[in-house]
Design a protein that fits this description.
Elements lengths: L8 H10 L4 H4 L2 H11 L12 H8 L1 H6 L3 E4 L2 H15 L6 H13 L2 H6 L1 H4 L1 E2 L2 E2 L17 E4 L3 H12 L22
Parallel strand pairs: 1-4
Antiparallel strand pairs: 2-3
GO molecular function: sulfotransferase activity
Organism: Microcystis viridis NIES-102
GO cellular component, one term: membrane
Length: 187
C-alpha cells in the first residue's frame, strides 16, 4: 500500500492491521529475507508516506513485481481543501514543534487562496513534499503501482482490493478526518 497523504490511508492501514495483514503475506519468502537483509543496520527510507519508487528501490525489482501494490488518489481540489484544514485543525494541535510552527505560518497566511499559492499549497501534501502523482510514478513518470483507486469511489475500490489480497473484513472506518464545509474562491 502506497499511502498518498489525505486519501484515506490511515483508514486503510487500520483495516489491514485489523485483518492481521503482515509483510509475510505481502512478500514471498525470498523477497522478505532480501528486504530484511537490505534494511539491516539502515534506516528504512520508505516511511509511512513513502513514495512507490522508494518502496520499489528497497524491495528490488523482482519483489516489487511480485506484490500487489496500490494507492488512492483524489480530486485535487478536495485534496487541497482537506490539506488546508488538516494544517489548521490537526497540525496546529501537534506536539511536534516543526508542525506547530508550520501550522502557525499557514494560519498567518489568512486565507485558503493564499495557502494555495504558497509552497504549502503548491509543493506539499500536508507535511510531505510532492504532488499526488509523485507517490505513484517512477523517475520516468510511469505509474508503477498495480492499482490506483479513487477516494471518491473508496468503498468500491477498497472492496476490489480486499478481494485481490483476500481481506476477510473490508470495512473502512474514517480516521484522521479534518472537519470543513465546502470552500470556493471568488473573484
Amino acid at each position: 500500500m502506497i499511502h498518498v497523504p489525505k486519501t484515506a490511508g490511515t483508514s486503510q492501514i487500520k483495516a489491514l492491521r485489523r485483518n492481521k495483514y503482515r509483510e509475510e503475506r505481502l512478500l514471498p519468502k525470498y523477497s522478505l529475507q532480501n528486504v530484511r537483509r537490505k534494511l539491516q543496520g539502515t534506516r528504512f527510507p520508505a516511511s509511512v508516506h513513502g513514495k512507490a519508487k522508494e518502496h520499489k528501490e528497497v524491495l528490488g525489482e523482482r519483489a516489487w513485481e511480485d506484490i500487489f501494490s496500490f494507492a488512492f488518489v483524489r480530486n485535487p481540489w478536495a485534496l487541497m481543501v482537506s490539506n488546508y484544514f488538516w494544517w489548521l485543525q490537526i497540525a496546529s494541535d501537534s506536539k511536534h514543534e516543526r508542525l506547530s510552527k508550520q501550522a502557525e505560518e499557514i494560519r498567518c497566511l489568512g486565507s485558503f487562496e493564499k495557502f494555495l499559492n504558497s509552497a504549502y499549497g503548491t509543493e506539499m501534501i500536508v507535511d510531505h513534499y510532492g504532488s499526488m502523482a509523485d507517490w505513484i510514478v517512477d523517475d520516468k513518470n510511469q505509474i508503477i503501482v498495480k492499482f490506483v483507486g479513487k477516494f471518491e469511489n473508496l468503498e468500491n475500490d477498497w472492496q476490489h482490493i480486499g478481494r485481490i489480497i483476500d481481506l476477510k473484513d473490508t470495512r473502512l472506518f474514517h480516521h484522521n478526518k479534518s472537519n470543513h464545509g465546502s470552500i470556493s474562491l471568488t473573484r
